[in-house]
Amino acid sequence: MIALAALKNWHITGLDVKTAFLYGEPDEELYMEQPWGFKVKGQEGKVLHLKHAIYGLKQAALAWWKALDKSMGELGFTCLHSDSGLFVNKDQSIIIIVYIDDVLFLGADKKKLLKIKELFMKQWECRDLGDAQEFLHMRIRCKDSKIYLDQSAYLQKVIEHFNLQNVKPAPTPLPEGYQPSPAKENASATLRSKYQQVIGSLLYIMLGMQPDIAFVVTKLLQFASNPTEEHLGKALYICRYLLGTPDYALVYDGPGNGCLLAYADSDWASDPNIRKSTSGYVVKLAGAIFSWNTHVQKTVALSFTEAEYMSLSDSSRQLVWVRNLFSKLGIELAPIPLFEDNQGSIFIASNPVQEKCSKHIDLHYHYIRDVV
User: Fold this and answer.
1) pLDDT band at 356 (very low <50, low <70, confident <90, very high)
2) Per-domain residue ranges for the chain?
3) Which residue in 128, 74, 76, 79 sits closest to 102, CA to CA?
4) CB-based contact 101:15 (threshold 8 Å)
């Protein structure tokens, strides 16, 4: 949506819903013990009947979403089936993004946008954030028809938390040729806890807006249950790389490049421990990546072509979702170019033929043929 905002020159404004989960009404009949320190004298054995959801309740998020969906319907907005966190009005002129209690309003007509925002704030107790400058720890900067996204503030907190302010920055996310291997002994609780903290912080940064560390974070994430000191050292090495790239940002340039395209690739049998390949894809709009993923393939690929073919299929499913999402926003797309550098996989995807080298490939990967 940020990429679209750059492409269409939309205004972006935000707010924060205070104590959002307390607005939800659970469908079930729920009771809770009286909180410690607030028990009614002489009636300590009684329980409380919940009329609203509370934080910590498993159903709280769903109850809040149902209350929100009903409220949005009253404002003339409907939820998209492609993404339940997006709401759009009938003429598709305003899009509202809701992530738990963080809300963004996007649209070309600023006056209309602020009016809808005002009506929203009358239904819930909110904190007006004005023109959006931050969303989910991502800093939003608009300059010369470009939108810059970065996580410099959150990254600085991570660096300070692990006391890495004075270390030497690393030139790459991991040393060249490094291949992690499983631990031979069980890790201590202290080591496991610290490793999971580092990896968890890196995972949040990677998912937010750092595709350049996606491969290495996913690689080290496989050892989160039983890490070694070497694994921890390499996780901190990624932090050192980020220390040297604090100003990296995703730059969405609407007037500069409005093309929507994708790239798919794989690293055949790259894991020496299990011999499984790694798939990856990126999707670009307005000159920058807005969707990316890297993961270990579920089965062992017997050839480079098979590994690339499986990566193509995984990428195509994401593009189908993108197409469905855009169509619900009233944006009709031409066929999306998906770039692939392996001629064998391109041939198998484009020609529904059965060959000796491909007949063993799982049927669900042939989905790519339907969407070509």
Assistant:
1) low
2) 2-136, 151-243, 258-371
3) 128
4) no
- Bigger pLDDT: 275 vs 204: 204
What lies within 8 Å, CB to CB, of 98 at 6+ separation is 68, 85, 86, 87
Please identify, in words, the CATH class of the domain defined by 2-136. alpha beta
**Among the listed residues 23, 98, 30, 101, the one whose alpha carbon sits nearest the alpha carbon of residue 64:** 23
Residue 309 vs residues 19, 82, 234: alpha-carbon distances, Å = 47, 26, 31
* Pairing relationship of beta strands 250-253 and 146-150 according to DSSP bridges: antiparallel
The predicted structure's pLDDT at residue 364:
72
Distance in angstroms (rounded) separating the CA atoms of residues 113 and 131:
11
Q: What are phi and psi of 98, to 5 degrees?
A: -125, 120
Residue with token string 């062992």: 300
pTM, whole model, 2 decimals? Answer: 0.85
Handedness of CA 91, 97, 103, 108 (dihedral sign): negative
CA 38 from centroid of its chain's CA atoms = 40
Q: How far apart are CA 332 and CA 88, in angstroms?
A: 16
- Of the candidate CATH numbers 3.30.420.10, 1.10.357.10, 3.30.450.40, 3.30.470.20, the domain formed by 258-371 belongs to 3.30.420.10
Span 11-64, pLDDT tens digits:
999 999 999 999 999 888 999 999 989 899 999 899 999 999 999 899 999 999
Q: Among 140-154, 225-239, 248-262, 327-341, whose mean pLDDT is lowest?
A: 248-262
Calpha distance 250→23 (Å, rounded): 35
Tokens at 332, concatenated: 């009709």
The pLDDT value recorded for residue 250 is 93
Burial of 172: CB neighbours in 10 Å, binned 0-12, 13-18, 19+ = middle
